[in-house]
Structures are given as C-alpha cells and as structure tokens.
Amino acid sequence: VNLINIIIIYNKYCLKMRKIGGILGGLGTYFMWQHYNEKEPGTFRGFSRAMGRIADAEIPIWAREPIFKTYSRFYNCNLDEVKSELQEFSSFSNFFRRELKEGTRPVCPESPLVSPCDGKVLHVAKYMDSGFSVKGISFSIKSFLGIQTVPKTVYICTIYLSPGDYHRFHSPANWNIKSRTHFSGYLLSVNPFLLKFIKNLFCLNERVIYMGDWTYGFFSMTPVGATNVGSIRVGIDPELTTNQTAHKIGAVNKKDFEEIHSVVKGELFGEFNLGSTIVLLFEGPSNLELCIHEGDTVKTGQPILHKNFC
C-alpha cells in the first residue's frame, strides 16, 4: 500500500511540474518575443536549430535506458507501446520519433475522419465569418492557409502534441493532396497557455500546409512548427526542409505536385521533433457531426466524426 501511495504522489508531482514547466516556458517565450521579435527575429529559429543539434547528439549506449526512462516518467510516455528497445535509440531525436508496436493505434474503419496524432484537442468547430478562435483568440483562415477564398462550410480541428506524446502523425482521411505551401515563420512555443498572450500565434509560426480534397470537398492538413520543433518531415515531400538559415521569416514557398498524392486514412504522413500542433481545416456538409470536444485527449486513429455519419 505504501508503494502504491508513493507512486500516486510521484505521478501527481510530475503532473504538477509539467504544468508549472509549461507555464514558465510560455512566460519565458512571451518575454523573449516582446524583446526580440523586432530586434532579432531569428532568435527562436536559431535556438531551435541549436536544440536540434543537441537532440541529434549521440547518447552513450549505457546511458540511454536511464535517460529515456527518466524522461518518460516525467512526461508520462507509455514505454510499453514502443516497438524498439530503449538502447536502440541513439539520440533524443530518434526517441521523439519512436515507432509504436503494430496494433497500438488501431484506425477506426467506420469513421471517414480520424485523429492524425496523439494529443490534446485545443479547438474543434465549424468555421464562421472566415475566421476561427482557439482559447478565445481569433485567427484568420485566409492568412493561415495563404489563400484568397475559403469554402462556405469549413470545420477546424486543432490538436496539440505535448513533449511526451507519440510524435509521428498520420493521414486523417482518404484524400488527394494537390499542393504544399511552406511558410517560413517564427518558432514560438505552441503551449496552450501562450495562445492568449501572442496574437495570431499560429499564423506567425512556421507551418507546412498540404491542401487537396476529400469526399466532401476541400481538405487541408497543417503541421505547425514550434520552439525546439524546427524539424518537420513528410514522407510524400522529401524536398521539404524547415527552419533553415537560408529561409527568411515571412518567405512563402508553394509547390503544386505534378502528380496528385492519394493518401489513405491511417497512413504514416510525417513526424515532428519534440512536440507541436496539427491543424485540420476541411469542408463538409452543414449537418456534419464531430465526436470530439475541446480539452479531449485523443489517440491516433480515434474517430473525429461519428461512425454513423455518411
């Protein structure tokens, strides 16, 4: 009984420290943003590149298991799901992008739309008046996507990946990808706490928007970069490079694919380093029913639309 109590107290302590760490990190990002955003706009990008080099550094074999176990206890990673032995991860980057055991994330066969990643739902709703809000903060869909016209009925689903989550992301639906738009932006923390302090955060951050269509019309999926998450990799787009010194903040690179990429629901799409956000914006009928809500914790493959919706 004493051991169980100790474990419960330890888990509560880790949870509290994660929350405190998130708040302190958000405040630190905010104050740095206030000081550097005009004087030295590349500060966060340079910091993320430096952190990326540290994350890529090889860890001695003898130190890997204790390091990754300590990290996993603090960030609540489920090591029982991991396919490889901890000693096989040569760096933090490799551990962040860990592959899970087969069958760990079953894809709901009945729902036409499933969660592309593990994480916490920040916002899910039908779009109104060419904008949307996350945590009470408004964003422009046109600015976010970099397009002039938006379909009449669009839904949004925003999912935040914490440092302890599975960092690969998958196709949320059967859809056809026609183009990619890469916005070279800032790399600010996307911790939910920070959204209320930095206006238009998602539109400021580096992001890669994949656009195309699905059963109900327009469909887009956007991995958003963040502090320590300069690296976004996408399987169908090997030419993509993010957070490069040659990329000026505000630069936009659009690519129309010569051949349309048809991807299948649940198919591996890409991966992050450390944690970030996935934003889905998609067209649908007015009676479309979403089965997840703000604040929900979701897993890859979990239904976003009710199974009986067709």
The major sheet is characterized as: 8 strands, antiparallel
Q: Give the overall shape.
A: globular
Number of helices: 6
Total beta-strand segments:
13
Low-confidence stretches: none
Strand order of the largest sheet: 10-6-7-8-12-4-1-13
| Number of self-contained structural domains | 2
Percent helix range: 25-40%
Overall SS class: alpha+beta
> What is the rounded distance between the termini?
50 Å
- Can you write the helix and strand succession as a string? HHHHEEEHEEEHEEEEEEE
Primary descriptors:
310 residues; alpha+beta; 2 domains; 3-stranded antiparallel beta sheet; 6 helices; 13 strands; globular
Can you describe this structure?
- With 310 residues, the protein is α+β, with helices and mostly antiparallel strands.
- The protein folds into two domains: 2-96, no CATH class; 119-298, no CATH class.
- The chain contains six helices and 13 strands.
- It has helices at 2-36, 43-56, 61-75, 92-96, 141-145, 201-204, and strands spanning 119-126, 131-134, 137-140, 154-160, 168-170, 175-183, 207-214, 217-224, 232-234, 252-263, 268-272, 277-283, 297-298.
- The strands form three sheets. Strands 10-6-7-8-12-4-1-13 form an eight-stranded antiparallel sheet, with no helix packed on it. Strands 5-11-9 form a three-stranded antiparallel sheet, with no helix packed on it.
- This is phosphatidylserine decarboxylase.
- It is an enzyme of class 4 (lyase).
- Pathway: Phospholipid metabolism; phosphatidylethanolamine biosynthesis; Lipid metabolism.
